[in-house]
Design brief:
heterodimer; A: about 190 residues; 2 strands; B: about 425 residues
Amino acid sequence: MKQSIIPEGKVVEEVNKAIVEGLDIKEGSVAPDSSLIRDLGAESLDFLDINYRLEQTFGIKLARHSILEHMEEMFGEESAIDENGRLTEKAAAMLRRRFGDGGASLEPGMDIDEVPAIVTVRSIVDGVLHVLDSLPDKCTSCGASAWTPEDGSRIKCGSCGEYAVFTNGDDLVREWLQEMQEEEKIF
Amino acid sequence: MKKRSKRRVVVTGYGMVTPLGRNSRETFDHAAAGESGIGTIKSFDTSGLPCTIGGEVDDRWVADSSHLLARGLEKCSSRGLKLMLMAASEAAETAGLDKLADRGRIGVSLGYHGESPSIEDVILFNRFHDGRGTWDIGELRKNISYSYFNFFRRKPDVATSLLSMAFDCRGSNLSIVSACAAGTQAIGEAFKIIGSGKCDAMLAGGCEASLNFLGFLGFVLIRALSEKHTEPRKASRPFDRKRNGFIMSEGAGCVVLEDLDHARARGAAVFGEVLGYGSSADAYRITDIHPKGDGAVLAMKSALSDASLDPGQVDYINAHGTSTTQNDLVETLAIKRVFEDRAKRVPVSSNKSMIGHPIAAAGAIEFILTLMGINRSLLLPTINYEYPDPKCDLDYVPNEARKQEHGIALTNSFGFGGQNACLCLGAYEEDR
């Protein structure tokens, strides 16, 4: 369900904070469409750091694997990355649906080493929101529907006090790919 | 070839223990047959982890090393050091190291990181800590079941000391902790010490035994290990398009390096010569390699210049070849930058396709396998090479060992954090 306990503004604020602290850059240098690699100078380890900070803040698990790895797993080897290490047409189509405007620079045939540069501040915000939206209707411990915010970034059961359990990011990416595939038959 | 005036440093003994064998001959023979030492990890519970495989040294092979150490010292020795004592015994025995009279001119140079804390240690300490920074020292002292030996096992310098005690080496004593480059650096630094005239002989090499929960977990968290494979023995596939991470393994490799005149004077058998050593740093990022391989290029070039050789004189390259996407790509690029037009004609292979990556031991094991290959005119293969990667287009000696005479080789080691080391070695020739 679309949760409204943690407002989008709070997620944006925390993502900005995680990036500023993770990359040790000046506050205010982060724009929604900044590419972490191209504009903010992130290296591979920084993504793990930023994800870890956000997971601690919101009590969630973000995706460990890239969406391309999931496509290869679900739709077969070389379905997303061809034998020359380039993005396939189908994978590019899927990524554009996932990243919307942010995926405008995606082209079939591009070197997959260039794909991570499309990750922007906005796409991380979307990733966090996607996981938060997996909030179940009822508390998995006591069954009550009494979610309440705690410290602005955690969701707790107002009845039994347990923290909410969200679906992990990798499972959500797989679910999304499955639904998109059923609707659009891309692969 | 330019005539070199400096002291010549030769190999008079070597030994190893790896997932492929309990000594150097066994390891070499299994590698020559293209066998893999990788399997499901048995030494600790990996269930639920995204990587569950590694290259373990068979517990039955791990010798009781108590006879090598003075009474009471074995309890300070970690599994890594035990493996090193086995490798060093083989090397010292071949070299007849015990017959050298001046013990003050025999040194030790060891690449090792010590042992990770055990889960038992962590659980024990957790009982006496309130989670907010305060220790209940009174209770801890009453209940003490924490041995100070654990503290010693953690420290790499203690392993170096114990190694020098076990073989009575009283000269220069060096502990090297440069991750994947450690084994190569340990041999390179020993080569320099002998070359400078400070020692006549050095025990040099590296050891690794981090296949335990905390040693393994860090590499899982940074996603450095292979998580996708059809079966364990196919997971380590350097330079193959479907490579997706390295396979952690354990082992030890040790050489006896010796001043050539000293070795000749005592009539020692000589197995080969260290010709040059280069080390460098990317000075770039914590895990990402410099994308153009600047550090790797510098290390290879400086090993060649130290050896007074041109790239055209190199017959074989023992690659770092970890089976990670980045390393194998950048190493290929760096080799092309150093060897230019000749790059595609120089055979390059990765022993890690069979042994996995025994971090600090890797460089030492690979140095010895390279030397054995030179003496047996055999290029060891890169196994699991099935899907060519258009970006990795060198001659990787795919899947089968190749009978080929070769006299001069480079062996590369490139660590996380951009520590690079390269050794140039060759067959022993009286006039070089």
